[in-house]
Amino acid sequence: MISLYTAATPNGHKVSIALEELGLPYQLEVLDLASGAQKQPAFLAINPNGRIPAIVDHEADDFAVFESGACLIYLAEKTGQLMPVDVKGRSLVMQWLMFQMGGIGPMMGQANVFFRYFPEKIPAVIDRYQGESKRLFRVLDERLKDHEFLAGDYSIADIANWAWVRTHRWSGVDVDDLPHLKRWRDAIRARPAVARGIEQPPSRIDLGRDGDVAAKRFSEEARKLVEMGRDTQPLAQHKGSAP
Known about the structure:
single chain; alpha+beta; Glutaredoxin; Glutathione S-transferase Yfyf (Class Pi), Chain A, domain 2; 2 domains
């Protein structure tokens, strides 16, 4: 059994999707990020960085893993699935996983903070992060022009990137001119395990409706945290609380 400490964010959904795809039994431990649950001593003992997601593998002497990418790698290597075992194949998956960890996630996360949550609208900053997110989307689109998935067969690289790309509207980034990215996005969304994974836990807001009352309330709550001077990184992650 694996305990998954998580919330309805892109990074959190990466791991729940992987667990569903792998068919591993797991117990969901949902943290209320707005309350600061991720900063409490009990969770810091699992992840010293105070971020979700994290997992504890109770079949391996309660071994704890933090950082979403590290969780994906651990689960893939534990099961021998969603990542090739040959050196080149594994490297290709790792390259596209690191692309998400170092680019897609941070850029979209900051776009969310300044586009959705920050009390002051700073056009140059918003343009910077939305523009860089779109540039990275173009890289994915070009890759997917001649490849069904990012690194050969469907893998943790696809899961990691998809969990963020699916929330592009919340970041204010359009993908209508990226046909290959849209094809890939829709194909992965149709996978039954993916559909189950993004409901663990379910999202609180609906990306498809900017005027949705819940979305407005969510943005207001996040904005208050920014104004209070709290750490904004959970907010960058929290934006993924959308289907």
